[in-house]
Amino acid sequence: MEVYSPDPETERLELLHKYKELLKAVEKITTDKEDINHIRKAFEIAVDAHKEMRRKSGEPYIYHPIAVAMITVSEMGLDTTAVICALLHDVVEDTDITIEEITKYFGPQVAMIIDGLTKIAGVFDNTKSIQAENFRKIVLTLSDDIRVILIKLADRLHNMRTLEHMKRDKQLKIASETMFMYAPLAHRLGLYKIKTELEDLCLKYIEPEAYDDIVNKLATTKAVRERFISRFTLPIKNSLNDQGYKYQIKGRTKSIYSIYQKIHEKGVSFEEIYDIFAIRIIIDVPFEVEKAEIWRAYSIVTDLYQPKPDRLRDWISFPRANGYESLHVTVMSPTGKWVEVQLRSMRMDDVAERGLAAHWRYKENNAVESAMDDWLTKVRETMESHNEGEAVDFIDAFKLNLYTDEIYVFTPKGELRTMAVGSTA
Ligand code: MN
Q1: Cβ distance 370 to 343 under 8 Å?
Q2: What is the mean pLDDT of residues 321-341?
Q3: Where are the domains of the chain?
Q4: Are strands 338-345 and 277-283 parallel, antiparallel or unpaired?
Q5: pLDDT, tens digit (0-9, with 9 covering 90-100), for 111-120
Q6: Residue 44 catalytic?
Q7: What kind of architecture, by CATH, is found in domain 211-359?
Q8: How many angstroms is it from 65 CA to the middle of ligand 1?
Q9: How many angstroms separate the alpha carbon of residue 192 from the centre of ligand 1?
Q10: 44 alpha carbon to ligand 1 midpoint, in Å?
Q11: Averaged pLDDT, 150-159
C-alpha cells in the first residue's frame, strides 16, 4: 500500500487530467454541446459537494465518482445520462445536495436514477450482513431503470479495485457481498468482463493464498502456452488469409476464479485442467452474413483439426438468455491436446464482453433484444408474485435461475423457448 501525501497543486492538476480523460471517452459516444454542458455541470457540482472528503487511500473523494463515470462510459458503453448519474451517484447520500436540486438542474430522469442509487446504498449500509429481503429490493430496482443497477455495478467494481485500502474485516464483508450479489448480476446482464474481474478480485481477498498460487502458476506456464497457441493458430491464420477473411485471433486464458473453481469442485490439480485456455477467432463481417461466414470459418478450422462431436455449442442459432452469441468447437491438436475454438463476429464479441449496453447499440438484432426483455420481464414477474416474507424462496429461485444451464425447447407451433434445466411442462 502506497502512502498518499496530498499536495493541493498536484491534486488540482490530477483532477483536471482525470476530467479531460473522461471527456475524451465521452466524445466517442456524443458530441452534442448540451450533453457536454450537462456533464460539466455534474462534474462541477460533484467536485464542490465532495471537496472536503477523502477516500480511505487519502485521495480526494471526487476521484471515485470520476472513476465510476469512466467505467460506465468506456467499459459498459452507457450514455450521457449514465455519466451524469455516475458523477453524482454519492452526492445525495453523502453531501448536502438534495434530490430537488438534482431535478432542477438535470430533470426528472437523472433525479430518478440517483434516487434509486441512494436507496440501494441505504439498503446496504443499514445492515451488518446481507439479508434476503435486501437482495429482493435491489433486484426490484431493475424495473425502474436498468442504469441504476449498471451504475451500482460500476461503483462496486471501482470499490473492489481499490479494496486494498480497507481494513481486513471490511475487505471480507465487501468481497463476500460482491461474490453473492454483484458477480451474479453482472453475469445475468451479460457483462462478462466485469463479472470475471469482480470474481477474481473477490478471490484475491477471500482466499489470498489460493489466488497467489494460481497467479504464479499462470505466470510460469505462460511461455509454453504462448508457444503452443502460436503453433496451433498458424495454419488457421494461413487459411483465413487465403480466404480473404478480416479477423482477429487470440488465446484466451481462463479467469483465475474459474481455475480456482475447477481445482476445488472437480478436485483436479492446476496441471490437469485441460481447457486452461481457448482460442478465439473474431471475424469482421457485416451483420447480414455473420452466421454464414462463421460457419465457413468453422469449416476451415475443422478441416485442419478433428472436432469432438459432442463438444459443439451453437449459441449463434440459439443465443443464451443473457444475449451471448458464439460458436464453440473443441478440436484435437497435433500433440493430442483438446483445444476449444470460439468463433464469433465483432458484434457478438462486443455483446459478449460488454453485455446489455452493447445490445442497445445493435438495435437491429431483434432476437437478442427480445431475449433480454423477456428476462427482465420474468424477473419482474417473479418479484411481484413474491411477498415480503417469501424473499428467501425468491433468492433461491433467482440464484438457481442465474447458475443453472439453459435448455431449448420448441412449442408445437415451432417457436423456440429458453428454459432452465429441470423445467417441466
Ligand atoms: Mn460510490
Answers
A1: no
A2: 90
A3: 8-206, 211-359, 371-420
A4: parallel
A5: 998 988 887 7
A6: no
A7: 2-Layer Sandwich (3.30)
A8: 6
A9: 22
A10: 17
A11: 93
Residues recorded for the chain: 425
405 in catalytic set? no
Give the pLDDT confidence of 71-110 residue by residue, as tens digits.
999 888 888 999 999 999 999 888 889 999 999 999 998 9
Check whether 391 has a pLDDT greater than 50: no
Partnered with residue 419 across adjacent β-strands are 407
pLDDT of residue 387: 47
Q: How far is Cα 242 from Cα 252, in angstroms, rounded to an integer?
A: 24
CATH 3.40.50.620 fits 8-206, yes or no: no
Cross-strand bridge partners of residue 60: 54
**How many Cβ atoms from other residues are within 10 Å of residue 247's Cβ?**
19
Instruction: Give the whole-angstrom CA distance, residue 353 versus residue 386.
Output: 32
Give the cell for residue 168.
Answer: 481486513
Q: Which residue has the cell 465518482?
A: 65
Q: SS3 for 308?
A: coil
Contacts of 67 (CB under 8 A, 6+ apart): 18, 158
What is the pTM assigned to this prediction?
A: 0.79
Res 328 pLDDT > 60: yes
SS3 sequence, 348-410?
HHHHHHHCHHHHHCCCCCHHHHHHHHHHHHHHHHHHHCCCHHHHHHHHHHHHHHHHCCEEEEE
Asked which of 90-99, 329-338, 400-409 is least confident by mean pLDDT, the reply is 400-409
Ligand 1 ion: residues within 5 Å (CB): 90, 155
Q: What is the amino acid identity at position 220?
A: T
